[in-house]
Task: structure prediction
Amino acid sequence: MRVVSPGRSWSSAMTLPIAMVAGVLALASAASGQAVEGDETPGHFFLVEQPIDTARADRLKSAVETVVRASSTRGEEPILVFEIRPGTSDYGICIQVADFISLKLSRAEKTVAYVPEPLSGYALFIALACDEIVLGPSASLGPITPAGEEVNPGLFGFAEALANTKGRPADLIVGMLDPSNELLRVRTADGRTDYVLRSRLPQFETENAVLSTEPVWQAGARGQLAAEAARSEGLVRSFATDRGQVARIYDLDRVTDSTALGADQLKPVWIQVARPIDSVQEAFISRQIARAEKSGANLLIIQLDTPGGQIQPADDLAQRILRLETIKTVAYVRDRALGVGSLLALACDEIVFHDDGKLGKIDATVTGGGKVEPLDDRDREVLADRLAALADQKGYPTAVARALVRPDVEVIEAIDTQTAAVTLVDRETIQADPDRYIEQGTLVLGDELLTITAANAQKFELARTVLASDEEFSALYGLGEDLVRLRGPSWVDSLVGVLNTPFMSGLLLFVGFFMLVVEMKLPGIGLPAITASLAFLLFFWSRYLGGTADGLEIILFMVGLLCLALELFVFPGFGVFGMSGVFLILFSVVMASHSFIIPTEDYQYRQLSRTLILLMLSIAAVVVGAVLLGRFFPSLPLFDKLILKSDPFSFSSTEVEKDIFEPESPFAYLLGETGRTTTVLRPSGRARFGEIIAEVTAERNFIEQDSLIQVVDVQGSRIIVKQLS
Result:
């Protein structure tokens, strides 16, 4: 029993418990609300009106891709509902849309076909390409082949493949395509119900114990399934009179009509590639892509006008483009995408050709300075594999991709009996599986490298379309003049490109190392040190923006300089610190010159050899310059006053010849002099030379006080001595 104090009312006494209960309920409600909100399934409707032409199909795909990419950015997997209206459309465009829905929308949770009215004709392929089908109460499905048209035998393979992909009875779909071939519902002894075409029944009976057969089609409705029949046959999940019922069937919390999504939702970025692809160009394009991702762009246009470039940067850039999942990529072959520039084109989702466009003919690499090097057989094989892999992932013919770099590839147009589709394959593929392909003709004889032009780009199934002007390209993707601008290299990128040329790289290394030698000959930190710092700064800055260097190379270089300083000014002799410093400096320069650490391909070995040759030439030039400096610099007017020399009036009687590389010191006149220690050297201390007392360092071991010593070396302000017996 709770006792309430007289000075406190019952309501006030209950305030705290009620507040606690209310707080718990509020938290529970908030948690519940968050869970519901987190479990929301967004739904998007797309109206598919007939006749479906190329423009409508492109708008539909663009709208769907916009939704999928935006949802992926938010971490959502939407349900896409395609409301298909009756009408008449060509089978070619319907197959394209069906392939798009069936194969390209893996990031959606589910695709649904909503058929409110009777649907027949080739647009039925679009419905069958969806994961599930919802019918209107009076709707029906089929037949696929329009009345009065002959059945196209080339569609049988596509119908079977589509049915197998979506887990539907293949013979049922083929029966809707060819109503003249009687379809039977067959019950077997193991309790299964199958759908078997009359022509395939004998083979089916040899493999199964058939109990009974009955025709599937109702009288006068061959190839057609009414709503109830379609549901009983397992083709349809449910019925709905309108979109609201469809939303309730799938528990859609947010329903949007996304049919009109397109140009008003576009956030495009247009990048121009107008020079050979090297590490600098690759770094520039990578930076632009990163900015596009950060800005939320959903369309990336890469305008190609390049003669080719180097294999490694082009391959790295192609992989960078390939990894873009939330951005649609389009390669616009405005003028040329020759050589390894073809890698960039095949890495994009779509390729559009200008009338002047050319692609392929990969027979050489081109450096940033315009130097052309023919490909060897090893590089051809590497590039052929890279191109084929890109083509396979983006849906381009792999045989055509290989023919761009290998002159021995024969490209053949053939019918694939498994899919009934006309495809482009090479001779090796046909020989590996001769029963699968029926040859229709040879497009590439295999006696020269393939070059794709605007005239044959669509024949080789690489180009989405061919256009006559940039204005047509902008209209194709709904781009306005105020919506997108062409991005090309800035003056900074041009400067980085110049600094990354072999000549400028070698010059910067020479100036940097040579000025360090000069600084050792001159007192203090002056102009030579500043010049050396500026040269090394420009070298690593250009390599950093060029994409071949990062913080690691810069840190290794700085540690190398620190080791050299320790060797020169702290620890005498040329030992561990000196060797480590030289190695780190040289290693950092080599690492900063290319994007790989350990070469694995032939072209990487060649690039590494060029880097080592450049480095050796720079070092040789520094040695020659140092010799000339030591011989002539002290005698030049004005400059001779900058060199420290020994006091001509010194009491030293010993003349010691100094090496030209050894920096002068204010204590150089003590070299060879004898004296006595005034303190214990541990190893540093003090000693007296005549009337001069100076700080000295023992060459080895400790030296006791009042010991006889001799100066054996002078390094700057350091005096190194040894004990005399």
User: Anything to note?
Assistant: The chain has 23 helices and 29 strands. Confidence is low (pLDDT under 50) at residues 1-38, 646-663.
